[in-house]
## 1
Amino acid sequence: MSLKEDIAKHKASLPLRYTREWLQKRFREFYTRAEPELPPRFTAREWGMFGWGGRLMQRHLAFQSEGELQARLAREAPMHVYHSVAYYTHPSAGRMDEKHWQAADLIFDLDADHLPEMELLKRGETTFGALMEIIREQAVQLVEDFLLGDLGLDAGDLQLVFSGGRGYHVHVRTPAVLELPSGARRELADYLTGLDADRERLLVDAGHTRKYGDKRYSTGELRLPATDAPGWQGRVARFTSAWLEEAQALPADERLARLESLQRIKTGAAKNVKLDGTPQEVFDALPRHMQIALRDAALSACAVYADEPVTGDLHRLIRLPGTLHGGTGLLARSVTLDELRDFDPYRQAIALGDAPVKVRCVAGHPVAMGDVASLKPDEVAELPAAQGAYFMARGFATLEIEA
C-alpha cells in the first residue's frame, strides 16, 4: 500500500473511530448514575458483558453485591450487559457442567426480525417502525391472552421488558415453571403459534351420518365455537366473530370482496353467501371451504412469534433491564402491562439526553427512528444526543467531524 493510500485509509477510518469514542463517552456518563434493575437472586446468576472495539463477550462473571456490579459498569461502560436466566451454585465457573444448574426463569423473546411481516420490509412494502408496533401488540397479546389467560399466571410473576432493540422480553418467575426442562419450554413457545394445533378440533363438528346403501357417510357440518371457549377454540371464535361483524358493517358491494380476500377463496365464490344474522349464524351457514379459510386466517392472525430457541435455552443470557443497548443507544426498561399498551420506545426508552450532536448519514437509503427523526443518504443534521446515538449505534450515521 502506498503512502497516499495509507493516508486515505486512515482518514476514512476517523469518522468511525470518533463515532465509537463519542458513544462510549455517552455510555460512561450514563453508567456513572445508572441504577440497573437487578433480577431476583442475582448473586446466583452468570453475567456477561460486551466491550467496545469488537472485543468478545466477557462471560462467567458473578457479582456478590449491587455496588460491585455498578462499579464494574461505571468503570467499563460496556456496550451490552446480560445475565443468565438460570440460577447456579457456582455461576462464575468456566464450564457449564461446573456451574451446577439449579433452575431457570421462563423467557419469551419477541423480536421484530422474527415476524412474517419481515418479508414485506425486505420488499420495501412496510417500515421497521410498523414492525415495532406489531411486535408491541404481540407482546400485549402474549401476556393478556396466553400467560394471564390460557396459563392462568399471576401478573406479579411476570416482568415485561422493552429489550432496547427490536422487541420485548417477558420473564416468568412463578415457581411452577422454574424447573421445567427445555422440551417443555419449547412446547410452550410452539403453543403460541398455533402451528401444532389440531385444526380439525378448532371448529365444532356438528355433522351427523347418513346411510347410503350399506355405507354411512358424515355430513361434515362445522359450527363456530363459543367465544368464551378455552384456548385456541375461543381465540378462533373471537377472531372470526369480529371479522364477520366488520364485514357486515361494510357497504353491500364491498362485503363479497371482503370474503374473497380470504386466502384460497376464488373470485365469484361468495356471490350467493348471505351475511345477515349473528356471527354464529353467518359462519354456520357458510360453505365449508370458507369456514376453513376463516379458521386458518384466525390461526395466522392470533399467533405470537416468540423466539423458540431462547425460550428453550436453560443457559441463555438475557439483557439486564436498566442498561443501554449498544446497537441503538436505547434503554432496556421494564414496563407495566398498561404502559405496554401504548409504549413508544423511541420516546419512552431514551436515556442519553438532548444535548445537540451533528451526524452524517452513511446509509444508502433513508432511515428513521420511528416517527421521531429521520435521515436521508449523506444528510448532515444536528440532533438531540439520544437520536444521534440511535443512528450512530445502528451504523446509519457517523459523528460529523468539524473541519
## 2
Amino acid sequence: MSKFIKSIALVSCLAILCFSGTAFAADTVKIGMLAPLTGFAAADGFSAYESVKLAVEKVNAEGGVLGKKVELVCYDDAADPKQSVPLAHKLIGQDRVVAFVAGSYSLPTRAVSAIFNDSEIPLVSAYALHPDITKGDFTFRNGFLGTVEGKGAAYTAVTMLKAKKIALIVSDNDFGTTLTQGFEEFMKDHPEAKIVSHQKYPMSEKDFKPYLSKMKAADPDAVFFSGYYFQVGPAMKQAKEMGIKVQFIGEEGADSPKTIEIAGDAAEGFIMVTNLNRDDKRPFVQEFLKAYRERHKIEPDMVGASAYDGFMLLVNAIKQAKTTDGPAVAKALAKTANYDGLTGLIKGFTPEGEVVKPVQVQTVKNGLFRYYGVITDPKLITPSK
C-alpha cells in the first residue's frame, strides 16, 4: 500500500470531525470546512484539508487573528450534497463557525452556499466551478469560474499550440458543462480553428476507448479532455495503448499527482490550465511546496493551494474588518485587492464574488508538472456576469 493510500486510510479511520492540531480553548476563531475525505474524490479532499492545516499552523504561529488562535473545524462530505447539507447546518448551529472554506466539488458546494449566505457567514469556494455557488453577498470563489477556465483551455489550444482542429471530450456534469461553455465562447471569435468532434461521457465512465476512437476519426490536432484525475489519467493511458498520438489538454480537475501516477509515461507532454505554478519563484510559494512535499512525500496540487488561499483570504478579511462579524468580513473580502496568494496575484473579486487572477498553464515534464505559460489577458481572466 502506498504512503498516499495509507494517509487516506488514516484520515478515513479517524473521526469524521477533523481538527487542525490540538484542541483549543473555547476562545478561538472557528473557521469551518467541508472536504471529500472519503469516496471517489478522497485524493482531492486529502490535499485540500492537509493544505489548509498548513495555513492554520502558519497563522497561529504568527499570533493568530484578533488576538485569538484559529480553529479549523472540518467534516467529510464525501463530495455528496446529501451529506454536505446537514454538515453545513452543524457547522453553523453547533460549531458556530464565523467563516467557511468550501473545499469540495460543485454539487455539494452548490448545495451549501445558499445556507451559509442566508446565515451571513462568508464562504470562499476553493475550486468548485459552478456559477450558482456565488449567488449571494457572502459567497466568493478563489478558484476559476468554469467559463474562465474553458476560455483558458481554448486559448491554450488555439493561440499557444496553434491547433486548427480540436476535439472535445467532456464530463457530463456541472464541471464539464461550464468548461465547454467557456471553450465554445472563445472559439466563436477565432474562426481560424474549429471543433471537429464533441462528446460527453458520464461521471461513472471507466472505458474511454469508444470516445477516443470516435475522436481519432475526426483527426484533430488537439483534444480538450475535461475531467478529474480518475478520468483524465485512464483516458491518456488508454489513448497510448490505442496508438493515438494527439495533444491532450486538460484543466484543474486533472491537477493532481494521481493523474501522472495513473497515466504513467502517457502523461508526458500533457498540458492543462490551472491556478498553481510549481515554478513560481516567490519564496512563500516555494516554502509551501517544500513543506507539503516533506510532510506527505507526494506532490502538492492546485486543489490544496486553492484551499490554502481560500482560508488565508478569509483570515485576511477578518484582520481587515477587525471583527468576525459576517457582514463586515464579507465587505472586506469584496474589497480584496492585489493579494499575494499561492495561486498568483489575486487582483480582487468581481461584484459577483468571482476571483480575477492569471490562469496558469502547466505541462508534464519528466513526470512532474512544470511551467508552460500564463494567461493574463483581462478579457479572458475576468469573469463575465
## 3
Amino acid sequence: MISLLFTFVLFAAVPENVTEFDLDNGIHVVSRTVTGGEVEGLSFFLVGGSRVLNEDNQGIEAFALEAALTGSDTYPDERWREIMDVTLASWNASYNYDYSRYHLKCLSEDLPLLLDGFADCLLEPELDPVVVGRMQNSQLIALQSDLNDPDNRIWLVANKGFMGAGHPYLLRPDGIPSTLSSFDVDDAREWLSSRIKSGNIVITHAGPTPPEQLAVFLENSFGRIPEGGDVFPEVAEFGIYQDTIVAENDETLSAYVVVKFKAPPVGSEEAAAYSTAMGVVDEMLWQVLRTENALTYAVSGGSTNSYQRNWGYMYISTTEPVLSASLMTGVFSDVVHGNVDQSVVTGVANNNRTIQGINAQSMDTQCWMLGSGYISTGNWRTPYLLQESLEDMTVYEISRALSDWAGTAGWGIIADSAIVDFAEFEPWPLKGE
C-alpha cells in the first residue's frame, strides 16, 4: 500500500554538509555527508506519481519497478538475491501520489556494486515471467488484504467525497485488483522504457561517502540513464465546494468514520501552525471521545504536509458514529475558535520538535526529507525550516491557520446499515453553526 507520511514525521534544524550537483545526463543529486559511521542511505525518486497514471493503468509503476528489481541481464534473479544476502543491504519501496521512491541502506564498501546493480535492473531488466508472476501475486494478495479491511478502506471512501471527480489523487499508485492483475512483463518493459529518463529522477544521499566520490559512483551507474523526461501538470485543487458524505455498507460491528479537509501547501507560512493545530485536535479528540465518553478504542487527528496538495483529517472507529462525529466537529470548532489552553499548544509544539530531532537521525528520514523538499518546492531545506516555526506557537496562530484552510469537508463512513441509520449521518460543519 501507499506509504502516506502524516503530520508528525519529524524535521530537524537545517543540516550542514549538504551538496547539490547534477550528473552529466541531468539527474539532480542532493547529498548530505554524515561522518562517523559506515552506513549509507540513498533514495531514488521517480517523480510523477498519480499524475502519470489513468483509470486503466493505475498501479503500473509499482508493478514495473518491483518487476525490474527482481534482476537484470547482468544481475539475474539468483545472483541479485545472493548479493542482497551477502551485503545485508535493504531496499524499501513506497509509491505515493507525487512520486515513487526506492531507498537503499547498505555499508559504504557495498555502495558502488549495489548502485550498479540497481541501475542495471532499471535499464536492462531480466523480467522473467515466472519470477515476475510470483511478485505480482504477492502484490495482489497484499492489496486485496488491505482493501478487505474496512479500517484501511475508509480512507479511500472519504477521498471520494473530498477530492472531487477526476482528481489525480483518486488514482491508486499501488493499483486496484483489476488493473494490477492485467499487467504483464511487456507492460513493465514499456513503462520502464518511457519513465526511466533523467528528467524524471531525483537522487538523495545521507552517509559518509563524500560528494566527489558519490558523483563517480552515480555517473558509473545512473549516468547511463537516457536524457529526457515528462512534463507534469500542476496538481489541481481538491474539488470540494460543499460538505459531502460517501457511505458504504459493510457487515461490521464497528463503524469507521473519516473526515478530510484542506491543508496548506508545502512551504506555506501557516504549515507549522496548521500541523500544530491538528496535533492539539488529536489530543482533545482522545480526551473527549475516549476518556470522557468512552465511544472508541481508536480516534485520531492529523494532516499531511509533503504532497503537492495536502489535507487534514479526523478518524474514529466506534459503535456510535452519529454521536461521535458530532463530538469530533465540536472539538475541531473549539480549536478553530481558540478555546484551547496555551499550555496545550506549547506542549504539542515542543513534543513535535523533540520527536523531529529523534526521527531525523535516521538516514532513511534524511533522504526522504531532502527529496520531498526538493521535489515539492525546489528547495531541499523546506522540511527542515518547519522546526523553526514551531517555537513560541500561540493559540491565535493555530486557530487562524485552521480557520483559513479548513472549510468544507468530505466525510466517509463504513458501517452496517442494519445497525447504523445512514439517514442520521450528516455532513456536520467543521467550524460549528
